[in-house]
Write a structure and sequence with these properties.
TIM Barrel, seven-stranded parallel beta sheet, alpha/beta, binds NADP nicotinamide-adenine-dinucleotide phosphate, two-stranded antiparallel sheet, 12 helices
């Protein structure tokens, strides 16, 4: 990754074309090699859970194809502990990651949990094999999945339980209705949804209050901009997955905004991935959850909480 990061000295020596006139160079210190998640400010989930706006996504601490054990389980434990040390108090996971592996590793590394740590998990996808994800939104499946997550995570209540993806064979009202029942029983504190469009979100909110939406969103893929707008207007958290677009088809490289991104990264003496996270953080409803299997990448990602992009830089990214 450091291949795309330049020191300020290199930037000054090499010069930058195009964007430089728009961007005032800043030092790498500003990126905050030492910045913690708190530098991102906070967001209140469901009116009562205050979390730092820089979260961690625990999907990447499993094996290839998000299947089975990680290559280096000790590093996975270190990543989770380091995230908490760096002030991350919102960790996203799902029963489907591994499956079961991510939730189990979280409990192994962090239980008993520090005060204020919010673990957000999900149900509604089953895994026949590596890289395969099959929706199962039947109420009986969601109940079973939630109860299994409670056990694996060693929790008596899940702070944020997200419906992972709509099952085309099951009306979303039936799936969300079961989460509302689990909430009434005290097994779930707040309900969130994932991979929902605007109309689906409105339908879910007619069944029960929804406090967050987790959709794919990054500089290269803004297809959920309309959902983000609803979240901003209605004070729901928007949790962008694939925040640095490294794990799938669209990438930051070769994108229309990538030239601006490169120039801004050069000017700040940080990586393009850090700028991509800082760009997300510029929207107050946003709670990014960059995912990684390495402590070095985690530290770099969290340090992005300390980068403040100017209005000119934000406009240059578009
Ligand atoms: N709701 C959903 O349907 C859904 C779908 C996908 C993901 N998610 C959630 O969203 C989180 C983030 O999504 P994602 O993991 O797909 O995000 P991403 O933006 O694709 O980034 C993850 C990839 O980037 C690499 N990476 C992370 N930090 C880096 C850095 N500083 N430099 C270079 N490479 C870096 C990671 O590899 P290394 O391990 O080598 O660092 C990993 O392969 C997941 O962990 C999961 O919690 C939700």
């Amino acid at each position: 990754m450091s291949g795309r990061r330049l020191t300020r000295r290199q930037v000054v020596a090499g010069g930058i074309v195009g964007m430089t006139s728009l961007i005032a160079p800043r030092g790498a210190a500003e990126a905050g090699a030492t910045a913690t998640a708190a530098a991102a400010g906070t967001l209140t989930l469901g009116g009562d859970l205050v979390v730092n706006r820089m979260g961690f996504g625990a999907m990447r601490i499993t094996g290839p194809g998000i299947w089975g054990e990680p290559k280096d389980p000790a590093e996975a434990h270190r990543v989770l502990r380091r995230a908490v040390e760096l002030g991350v108090n919102f960790i996203d996971t799902a029963d489907a990651y591994g499956p079961e592996v991510s939730e189990r590793l979280i409990a192994e590394a962090l239980h008993p949990y520090p005060q204020g740590l919010v673990i957000a998990t999900k149900g509604g996808l089953v895994r026949p094999g590596p890289s395969q994800w099959v929706p199962d939104g039947r109420p009986e499946h969601l109940r079973e999945a939630c109860e299994a997550s409670l056990k694996r995570l060693k929790l008596s209540r899940i702070d944020l339980y997200q419906f992972h993806r709509i099952d085309p064979k099951v009306p979303l009202e039936d799936s969300i209705g079961e989460l509302a029942r689990l909430q009434k029983e005290g097994k779930i504190r707040h309900v969130g949804v994932s991979n929902f469009d605007v109309a689906e979100l409105a339908r879910a909110r007619r069944v029960t209050p929804v406090v967050s939406v987790q959709n794919r969103y990054n500089i290269a893929d803004r297809s959920s901009a309309d959902v983000l707008a609803v979240c901003e207007r209605e004070h729901l958290a928007f949790i962008p997955w694939a925040p640095i677009a490294r794990g799938s088809s669209d990438t930051l490289e070769g994108n229309a905004a990538s030239k601006a991104l490169d120039a801004i990264a050069h000017a700040h003496g940080v990586s393009v991935y850090q700028v991509a996270i800082a760009w997300l953080l510029a929207t107050p409803a946003m709670l990014p959850i960059p995912g990684t299997s390495s402590v070095a990448h985690l530290e770099e990602d969290v340090a992005a909480a300390g980068i403040k992009l100017s209005a000119t830089e934000l406009a240059a990214i578009g």
